[in-house]
Design a protein that fits this description.
This protein has about 190 residues and is mainly alpha-helical. It is built from eight helices and no strands. The model has no long low-confidence stretch (mean pLDDT about 80).
Length: about 190
Amino acid sequence: MAISFVFVCCRAIIRLKVFGRLWFDDFLLFIAWTSIFAGAILWHKSYRILLSLSDWKKGGVMNASKTEVKHVWNVILVVSILYVVGLGATKLSFLFFSRRLLRQTDMKALEVWWWVVFIITLGSAGVALGSMPYKCLIGSFEQIQKSCPRVLQQSHAGFPAVIIGGIMDVISDLLSESDLGLRLLVCRNIDRL
């Protein structure tokens, strides 16, 4: 996180010195970094309980109380949301950067393509957020144990939200990279960025 913080700060300093301002894509990058940093803090504060649950799932003794287990599921929910926000903000940062490149062209097809990629990127974040098993991560330990017994037996990596989100992530990555690549090929004069 320290290295990424240095790069984000250097980017801001260079933009301010060279261009005298920050753009919307810079602020999206700050949001992304802050979201991922907050998620890392939450994971770090809950690692002992997570390790205890890991031992329990392998047949060991669970050294965590029901309250701690419930806390872990809440952390998993919050970290998952922060991850989606951070990833989405990073992708949108690239898209808004490419949008600034679009201003230098008169190609209507690229503008339409940008909107398609933008909508799919927002949609992929919406699908990831919408397919999370909220009822299995919020509520009392007994409710989770009764209505979602598989949640207690698996890691969050097995949730359909993670699988669906991963697929949508790859699709939106490919589309946003094609969008930026097309703009870089078309733009001849990028000195005003």
